[in-house]
Specification:
34% strand; Immunoglobulin-like; copper; globular; mainly beta; 5-stranded mixed β-sheet; 3 domains; binds 2-acetamido-2-deoxy-beta-D-glucopyranose
């Protein structure tokens, strides 16, 4: 205690040297070396993206209000940005790691991210956001623990296990990108990976010999927190564990009303925490399954992720058929009803001592309304593209936030329409004009034939409604104005809509995108620009001194200033000392 207090005082001193430190709160440091390695998750050797030679990458473990410092070394042959999905980056879209806000880290360069995980708790993940790289890996979990003084709404778990699930192709990410550039569909994935590994051989016909599979080791009579993330490309997955219930406890930074599920649909980009009680008699190991949803089962059988849950007193191998997925071919509302059943625990504390529900979103008046409609891919100027409200987004050479800072004109248009365009689709850098401290209602209407998930960076939004058909003003009557979940990634079923509410209190330029990687790559995204007319670092932090320049501002790029790295290196040594003492 005394030591950390001492460190706190020490940090205040150091902070005077560096403009964007938050002195009073502790620091955590990570070094990420991002490089290619060869791996054979599905039995075929291929190039994957590793972090510190690990695939998937290491889990970032932080606590509310920590200052997180990540020195990223780009050893790829392409530029790189790491995006911290669901981390709100309060007051600093400078650290968001997306092409609309940050210049890419060139090959062979270092760049140090530094941000505070302010007022957040929960389960998130990071991934590389450029060049379709997520299809090759580079992802990992990101945990924000509660501060000791804030109670969590369940007993302290006996273990904390991150599980990354996702569809996977044996083609490398450059090959996948080329296919999309050539106007082709990616087709059916080759498998589903669980923590970077292929399926357990539950069936000799469907799974070849020699595949390395994931094993999760547990002890009987305990409770584990499983943090499950769909880091894949475009496949909605049903997650389940043979003979076990999944008690849902948290999603993307909000504690949920705790409910048991035998299986849960996890769409691309979504994160959930489950409490798993090891209450079975360990007569065998148990299957952990992630299988494709809403597809022809007989064709997609081999596209199934299977890992093993092994009790320390296990009496043998998992056997028999996999646990059944939901039997709902004739009931298309099953999955949506399950989504609607995920609600906010309004009495639990989140990152702050007051209950989550003390932010009464249902009694705030909406100030602006956007109806965003996606469509199946279209051809624009001879290219296959995806659209949102008739606009296919084009990333500017100069990131939007940087262009604003240096008053570069003509980089983007602040004219994203509040209703879908009716004319022919177009390619534009068109951005939503968000009003600082406004309360925005966004209706996401999915006119495609596949489930899409939408993610907003910088915020958690309230999911207040979803239904099949076209949204209309009357649909508001069905909104949940009390315990709709606050999260950053929501699914929108085909031929259906999802309504979200956003309190625009975070200044910056924030990405609103589909998480389905192919649709995103082809242009289904935009940004919401939120500006406080009064410039103050109380609502937005100054530009970091290590900012990278590109596009119209590339002439400003000098080689990295040494001082900042020196300060970080110095702090790192101090932190190590303190942890050991
Ligand atoms: C915010 O601005 C004030 C006054 O300009 C300055 O003293 C302070 O150091 C700044 N804080 C940060 C975190 O940059
Ligand atoms: C995260 O770090 C804390 C200590 O700071 C530790 O108690 C906890 O077990 C760690 N969690 C994981 C998942 O490593
Ligand atoms: C790049 O990262 C390496 C490894 O952490 C470090 O030794 C080096 O100082 C860093 N360079 C810069 C310019 O930050
Ligand atoms: C990526 O895939 C393409 C097409 O199969 C192949 O030509 C190329 O060598 C691969 N690159 C690497 C580094 O594996
Ligand atoms: C393995 O899968 C094949 C193809 O779906 C199926 O015909 C066969 O019955 C399965 N074998 C077992 C032992 O379940
Ligand atoms: C969830 O299921 C477990 C058994 O797996 C049971 O002990 C527990 O009471 C259930 N909890 C709720 C909230 O239904
Ligand atoms: C417990 O294990 C035995 C085999 O050892 C099995 O026959 C029995 O069905 C199991 N009971 C439960 C409740 O799982
Ligand atoms: C599913 O695929 C099988 C095998 O290709 C085919 O025979 C069947 O008609 C398909 N079912 C549906 C509902 O499309
Ligand atoms: C909601 O959170 C409270 C903690 O404030 C906890 O006691 C309660 O069990 C939770 N309720 C549900 C249904 O999860
Ligand atoms: C919301 O709007 C209604 C009528 O439009 C008004 O009476 C009410 O005071 C407003 N509430 C808030 C909190 O501004
Ligand atoms: C953007 O919105 C603000 C109000 O928040 C308004 O003053 C401004 O004129 C708008 N800009 C454009 C280009 O519409
Ligand atoms: C797409 O929109 C058209 C025109 O509004 C409508 O007729 C069609 O049913 C929609 N399809 C889906 C899948 O939503």
């Amino acid at each position: 205690m005394a030591l950390s207090k001492f460190l706190g005082l020490f940090l205040i001193h150091i902070a005077l040297l560096s403009s964007s430190c938050f002195a009073a709160d502790p620091f955590v440091f990570y070094d990420f070396e991002v490089s290619y390695i060869t791996a054979s998750p599905l039995g075929v050797p291929q190039q994957v993206i590793a972090i510190n030679n690990k695939f998937p990458g290491p889990t970032i473990n932080s606590t509310t209000n920590n200052n997180v410092v990540i020195n990223v070394r780009n050893k790829l042959d392409e530029s790189l940005l790491l995006h911290w999905s669901g981390i709100q980056q309060r007051r600093s879209s400078w650290q968001d790691g997306l092409p609309g806000t940050n210049c890419p880290i060139p090959p062979k360069w270092n760049w140090t991210y530094q941000f505070q995980v302010k007022d957040q708790i929960g389960s998130f993940f990071y991934f590389p956001s450029l060049h379709f790289q997520r299809a090759a890996g580079g992802f990992g979990g990101f945990i924000i623990n509660n501060r000791d003084i804030i109670p969590i709404p369940f007993g302290s778990p006996d273990g904390d296990i991150t599980i990354l699930i996702g569809d996977w192709y044996t083609r490398n990410h450059t090959a996948l990108r080329k296919a999309l550039d050539a106007g082709k569909d990616l087709g059916m994935p080759d498998g589903v990976l669980i923590n970077g590994k292929g399926p357990y051989q539950y069936n000799d016909t469907l799974v070849p010999d020699g595949i390395d599979y994931e094993t999760i080791d547990v002890h009987p009579g305990k409770t584990y927190r499983l943090r499950v993330h769909n880091v894949g490309i475009s496949t909605s997955l049903n997650f389940r564990i043979q003979s076990h219930n999944l008690l849902l406890a948290e999603t993307e930074g909000s504690y949920t009303v705790q409910q048991n599920y035998t299986s849960l649909d996890i769409h691309v980009g979504q994160s959930y925490s489950f409490l798993l009680t090891t209450d079975q008699n360990a007569s065998s190991d148990y299957y952990i399954v992630a299988s494709a949803r809403f597809v022809n089962e007989s064709q997609w059988k081999r596209v199934t992720g299977v890992a093993i849950l092994r009790y320390s007193n296990s009496k043998g191998k998992a056997a028999g058929p996999l646990p059944d997925p939901p039997q709902d071919e004739y009931d298309k509302t099953f999955s949506m009803n399950q989504a609607r059943s995920i609600r906010w625990n309004v009495s639990a504390s989140g990152a702050r001592p007051n209950p989550q529900g003390s932010f009464r979103y249902g009694s705030i008046n909406v100030t602006e309304i956007f109806v965003l409609k996606n469509k199946p891919p279209v051809t624009i100027d001879g290219k296959r593209r995806t659209t949102l409200s008739g606009i296919s987004f084009v990333n500017p050479a100069t990131p939007i936030r940087l262009a604003d800072q240096f008053k570069v004109k003509g980089v983007y248009k602040l004219d994203f329409p509040s209703r879908p365009l009716t004319g022919p689709p177009k390619m534009e850098t068109s951005v939503i004009n968000g009003t600082f401290r406004g309360f925005m209602e966004v209706i996401l209407q999915n006119n495609d034939t596949k489930v899409q998930t939408y993610h907003l960076s910088g915020y958690a939004f309230f999911v207040v409604g979803m239904d099949y058909g076209e949204w209309s003003e009357n649909s508001r009557g069905t909104y949940n104005k009390w315990d709709g979940i606050a999260r950053s990634t929501t699914q929108v079923y085909p031929g259906a809509w999802t309504a979200i509410l956003i309190s625009l209190d975070n200044v910056g330029v924030w990405n609103l995108r589909t998480e389905n990687l192919d649709s995103w790559y082809l242009g289904q995204e935009t940004y919401i620009r939120v500006v406080n007319p009064e410039v103050t670092n109380k609502t937005e932090l100054p530009m970091p001194d290590n900012v990278l320049y590109c596009g119209a501002l590339s002439k400003r790029q000098k080689y990295a200033k040494k001082s900042r790295f020196y300060v970080n290196g110095y702090l790192r040594k101090m932190a190590v000392k303190t942890n050991n003492g």
